[in-house]
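Extended Data, record Transketolase
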Amino acid sequence: MTITADDHRTHGYTDLPRLMSLMSGDEKHGPAATSTLDVLWVLYDRVLRVTPERTQDPGRDRFLLSKGHGPMAYYAVLAAKGFLPVDWLPGFGGYDSPLGHHPDRLLVPGAEIGSGSLGHGLPIGAGTALGLRAQGLTDPAVWVLIGDAELDEGSNHEAIAFAGPAGLDRLHTVVVDNSSASHARPGGIAARFEAAGWSAATVDGRDHTALYEAFTAPHPGRPHVVVARVEPKNA
C-alpha cells in the first residue's frame, strides 16, 4: 500500500473524526469506539510515556486496551500519534489489513496485548505491574482501559481484589462507563474498587481537563482507577 507524507505527521484532537471516518464496515462497533475516544486522546497526548520510537523500551509506560472489541478510536489515536500510518485506516477489518476488528499485538505497532474477549485486560495488567516490580522496574506505569460491562466478568474482580492488597501502585485502570453492564449498580463502580483498597475518581469522560487531573492524581501505595462516565450506549 502507498504511504504518503501526511501519514507520518502528527495530528491533533480535531483530526480524529476524519481519521475515524476512514474506517468502515459492518463490524466496527461504533458506540464502543466513540465512548473511548476522549480517554484515549488524553492518555496518549498528555499522560503516557511512550512514543513510536519507544515501543520496545523497558522503561516505557504500558497501555493495555482491554475494551478491544471497538478499536476504531484506538487505531485513530495511534495513527494521529505516528505509531501507524494513516494509510492503513481505510483497510480496517480487511483480509490483508493489520488492523483487525480486535487489535493484534503482533500486527499493530504500539499494541501491548491482543484483546477483545471481555475480562482479560485487567488481570494481564495486574500481572504486568507485578512483573515489572519483580524486575526492579518501578518507574513504568501500567494503564488498562476497560468497559463497564467487563465488570460482569469475574476475572476482573479477582484482579481488583488482588491488586489493592498487593499495593500495585503503578497499576492504573480507566473504566469507560456507558451504562452497558448487565449487573452493575448505578454509581457503584468506584466503590467496588475502593472496597479493595484502590484509589478512585469518577469524572466526565468527555472533559479533558477533568480526565487529566484524575489520571495524574497522586495515589501512593495504592492502584488507581478512574471511572469515565459517557453518554449511555443505547441513548
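Summary. Strands lie at 62-65, 142-147, 171-177, 199-204, 224-229.
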